[in-house]
Design brief:
Elements lengths: L1 H20 L1 H7 L1 H32 L3 E5 L9 H5 L6 H10 L5 E7 L3 E5 L2 E6 L1 E4 L11 E4 L4 H5 L4 E4 L1 H7 L9 E4 L2 E9 L16 E4 H7 L10 E5 L6 H16 L10 E4 L1 H43 L1 H9 L4 H35 L9 H27 L3 H6 L2
Amino acid sequence: MTNFLFEIKEGLLISLNAIRANKIRSILTTLGIVIGVTSVVLMSNAIKGIDKSFQDGISSFMGTDNLFIDRWAWFSNVPWWELNKRRPLEIEDYEKYKELAELPIAVSPVHDAGEVTVIKGNNSISSARVSGTNQDYIYTTNLEFAEGRFISELESENARRVIVLGYEYAEKLFPFGNALDQEVQLNGKNYKIIGILKKQGSFLMGAFDPDNQSFIPLNALFKDFQSRFGGSGITIVSRAPNNQMVPEVRDEAIEVMRRIRGLKHNEPDDFSINQQDAFLEMINQSVGVIQIAGLFITGLSLFVGAVGIMNIMFVSVKERTREIGIRKAIGAKKSVILRQFLAESAILCLLGGLIGLFFAIIGGKIIEQFNFPVDLQIDSIILAIGISLITGVLSGLAPAWTAAKMDPVDALRYE
């Protein structure tokens, strides 16, 4: 065992000396590994960041235990003109559902105000997303407040002109802070800011991004922006007591809504029950495409890097033929020579992997500055080191075997 460890140590020292003696060549050789490891770590961290951001957004805004009863289906194979024939859901549908449904722990109506411009002094947001709802909406989400509170029952019933701003809206309208209790104009109407949401950081949810969202009382929306009978109707948000009870709440919602809508047993549903699962499926498909593209680029880079390492190792074996002959002549076994060149190849790749890991971390920090989620975890470091070592061993196998099987007499005669 002691002899084996000594041989390993000696082989590593010889390998490091060989790498040190050919610095430029070693650096150029490892470029492919550097690019490959940088790609795989950056891609892995970006995918984890996207997944984490999306899960946080789903959890905080939509809730994993929420159902969204709507005229429209978020993702469906049903043609839009058939969905368009459906009757819009009205506030009376919400009131009846709230009265009849027994399982949900919270139910609220939501309706978008359409094209709204929000103005504060010289700052403005055009086509802002403004949703009307009531005091129960906050119980259907996990939203947290940076300042202030949500809409109260009194404000909701009396159509008070109050507003809760998402984080990004507050930042755009009040870049120097102090937004609470101030007023903004919504299409010329003054609304008092009563709450500002914490940053959710879930821009991947597109139109459902809670950072770019604002809430006003539903009755105020009907008063200032749309008739309660206009538009595409309201959405009813229904929250199950827990994730396990979502299917039961869904079945009850279908039964109750069919009764409310007066549908006969042979008529199809004229409403949709939407769930966050549809978003998860969408993001999983997008992540799958990114993974395939990333794996192709990474695989290509590592293949080019491995070919470069193999080539330079063959050159190294050729250059050190006499050295191999001398070592074999004084008793070095095949396995010792094999280990020496494998160690040299593995060290080259490991150095490339560590440099690639460094660039990936720096790249991740730069990408984060553009509000793109990147999540660095310890398994990314293990992945980088593992890929580097495996690539080094595989690419060094053929040159190391060539060196190990050399005849010492022929090697000593080599000029």
